[in-house]
């Protein structure tokens, strides 16, 4: 797992509660409040989506929410910028292919 625990300028990282999130069906640990992208990279996951036309892999590029290279499907919602979206316990995250697809959230029987 790659995670900066002691920064030369900022000092030691604050101790935060560990939670679990699900990425492509696999449970991984994350630190509460950190961006999804940070949790993924800490678990050696660097490909977040594949482009629509050429299926090229993309991951973090700007890391400030201005581009769309880090978008993934989060809890059934496509195109979520993972670099600025904090993790939440039990979050379900999927690698996005192309523009992504909305999952039907609630089926109601009439």
Q: What features would you describe in this structure?
A:
6% of the residues lie in helices and 31% in strands. It has a five-stranded mixed β-sheet with strand order 4-3-9-7-8, with helices on one face. The chain has a three-stranded mixed β-sheet with strand order 6-5-10, with no helix packed on it. Strands 1-2 form a two-stranded antiparallel sheet. The chain is mainly beta. It has one domain: Ubiquitin-like (UB roll) (Roll), CATH 3.10.20. The chain contains one helix and ten strands. The mean pLDDT is 92.
Please write out the topology.
Layout: E1 6-7, E2 11-12, E3 18-23, E4 26-31, H1 36-42, E5 49-50, E6 57-58, E7 71-74, E8 77-81, E9 92-94, E10 96-97
Parallel strand pairs: 3-9, 5-10
Antiparallel strand pairs: 1-2, 3-4, 5-6, 7-8, 7-9
Short description:
The chain has 110 residues and is mostly beta strands.
Give a quick set of tags describing it.
Ubiquitin-like (UB roll), 1 helix, 110 residues, globular
Radius of gyration equals 15 Å
List low-confidence stretches.
none
* Number of helices, counting only DSSP H or I runs of 4 residues or more: 1
The total of beta strands comes to 10
Quote the beta fraction: 25-35%
Structural class: mainly beta
Spatial ordering of strands, largest sheet: 4-3-9-7-8
Order of helices and strands: EEEEHEEEEEE
The CATH topology is Ubiquitin-like (UB roll)
Quickly name the level 1 CATH class: Alpha Beta
- Fourth-level CATH superfamily: 2Fe-2S iron-sulphur cluster binding domain, sarcosine oxidase, alpha subunit, N-terminal domain
Between the first and last Cα atoms, what is the distance in angstroms?
A: 48 Å
Q: Which descriptor suits the 3D outline?
A: globular
State the share of residues found in helices, binned by percent: under 10%
Classify the oligomer: single chain
Averaged pLDDT, please?
Answer: 92
What count of domains describes the coordinates? 1
């Amino acid at each position: 797992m790659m995670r900066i625990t002691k920064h030369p300028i900022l000092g030691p990282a604050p101790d935060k509660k560990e939670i679990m999130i699900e990425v492509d069906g696999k449970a991984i640990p994350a630190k509460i409040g950190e961006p999804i992208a940070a949790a993924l990279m800490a678990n050696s996951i660097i490909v977040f989506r594949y482009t629509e036309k050429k299926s090229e892999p993309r991951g973090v590029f700007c890391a400030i929410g201005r581009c769309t290279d880090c978008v993934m499907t989060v809890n059934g919602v496509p195109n979520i910028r993972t670099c600025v979206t904090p993790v939440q316990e039990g979050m379900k995250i999927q690698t996005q292919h192309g523009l992504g697809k909305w999952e039907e959230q609630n089926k109601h029987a009439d």
